[in-house]
Amino acid sequence: xxxxSDKHGLALRAGADAVTTPEGAAALVAELVPGGVDLAVExxxxxxxxxxxxxxxxxxxxxxxxxxxxPLQQLVVPALQFAGSGKRxxxxxxxxxxxxxxxxxxxxxxxxxxxxxxxxxxxxxxCTVRGWMLTTRTCGPAGSAS
Length: 146
What we know:
alpha/beta, 3-stranded parallel β-sheet, globular
């Protein structure tokens, strides 16, 4: 997802399955992943993209932001994106001072199954990628008490 649609062709040629703008993200995710995604990696550095990523998450999902937004950009989201839904926004910009390597490591971990769907578990899980840790508080399925 990128607000600059001029980049979409390059993303498709590089192997992306689908591309969209922040405004089209909800419809595309609903089509490709009904119910939403567990994890979104935001690498654009745009507050609108961060907001769109939060909206497409399942309950207890997480956005890892490795992009660097302009200092004057403001992230404005409804408070209920967090309260009651367990959604998380995690920062990784300059986490290991190798943001591009971090992105590749996260994608490799996903492809290799090292990041698992824990939405039906109640124990804590952690995933370490290149020296930074994503600690997730898992929740039960929607509607359950956890």
